[in-house]
Input
Amino acid sequence: GESVGLHLPTLSVQEGDNSIINCAYSNSASDYFIWYKQESGKGPQFIIDIRSNMDKRQGQRVTVLLNKTVKHLSLQIAATQPGDSAVYFCAESSNDYKLSFGAGTTVTVRA
Amino acid sequence: GAVVSQHPSRVICKSGTSVKIECRSLDFQATTMFWYRQFPKQSLMLMATSNEGSKATYEQGVEKDKFLINHASLTLSTLTVTSAHPEDSSFYICSAPAAITSPDTQYFGPGTRLTVL
Output
C-alpha cells in the first residue's frame, strides 16, 4: 500500500545551525500530517502538525512546510540544540485517524 | 497536554508465556486507542485499533488471536501477546487521540520493551 517515506536517514548538524528534515508521501488522500520526535527508548513526542489546506505552519523554533503538488513535507528546526538529537518521524493521516509513519531521520547535533 | 501511560515499561518473559501490556489515558477519555510495534532502528507499524465497547480492528498481517486487545474502559486498553516467541520481542507503543480538544492529535505512551527469551 501507499506509505510515507523520508529522503535521508541521517542528518548531522552543528549546534546553532538550522536543520531541515524532509519527507515524501504518496497517499494523495492524506489530509493531515504530523512530525514526531522520538528519543531512544521512549514513545514519539508530538512536535507540530499541518492540515492539507495549509502550506506552512510555525511553532516554537519549528516550521513545517507542505507542498501538495510534489507531495513533500519538511520540518525546519531553528538554532538546533543538543537536546534536538533524536529520530524524527513524519506521519500522515486521512479521515480514519490512523497514522502511517515514515522511516525516520536520525538527527545528531554536533557541539 | 494529554498524558498516556503504559505498564510495564519493560518485561522479559520465557517463550510460550503470555504477556499483558496496559495503556491508560490519564487525564482524558479515549474511546479509541491504537497499538503500534517498533523493531530496532525501524519505524512504527500500526498493529490494531482498540475500540471501547466493541472488537478491535487489526491491520493486515496481524494475528488477532496472538495479539489480544481489550478496551475495558474509556481510559484503559490492554494488549496481550499470547504464546510469545523471540520474534515477538519488540517495542510496543500505544496512542490515543485527545478527542474532545483535538481529535486528530494523538498522544503516545512511553512504550513497553518486550524481550522473549
About this structure: Chain B has a mean pLDDT of 92.
